[in-house]
Amino acid sequence: MFSRMQERATISEINSIQETNIVNENVLEDNEPTIYGAPTISADVDLVPVISDVSDNNYMLQYIENNYENKQLNRQFLFANYPYQYDPEFWYNFLQNNISLTTDYRYIELSIIRRVIEINHNPMDKWFGITNTRLQNIFNIEKDFVVQYYALGIIGIILVFAPYFIIIGVFAYDTIKKKFKNLTVQNLLAGITIVFLFGISYMSGNLLNSLSFTIYFALPFVILQKR
Asked: Which of 33, 71, 215, 218 could tie 102 with a disulfide, CB 3.0–4.6 Å?
């Protein structure tokens, strides 16, 4: 009789342990930590695969080919000026921009030139430029002062434009010093012409590199020098 009582007590202890484990499992499930900000995905939503490795050249090339027309990007930039096969990472990142930027030719030109300088890894490009020949082989940036900066560098742009600004500065200083006594109509028109020509060059581009324009541009400075 004693052994039967012992057997019943053992069975009762086993059942109690099993019930305790079930209760603990339910408590753990109910007390799972909540991750705030985690996205809630509905079963009715079609999931789009996300490619996290943007360094995959095949994926980037395929993305460029499928999306450049949707972004209204001129194919000349993509296939001729700076072929996307040589630098798919640049064009992949560029196509993430809005259409307002992918259709802005000047923005595209500057972006490509900056990329060329970036991957060139030559600190002297900042001071001496990448040369006008190399720049023109890509394309001609339609903005004076900017094209000279990238072609000739900081030192080159100072050597090219410093005389112009020195003459203007000397004339302005001399005019103030003489209390505007030397300010004639001819000098005034020459000064206004120079300012307008600088503005036109910056806005339209491709003027300061033109020999015929440079000759015409020098005439107002000759007038100021003979003040």
From this structure: 71
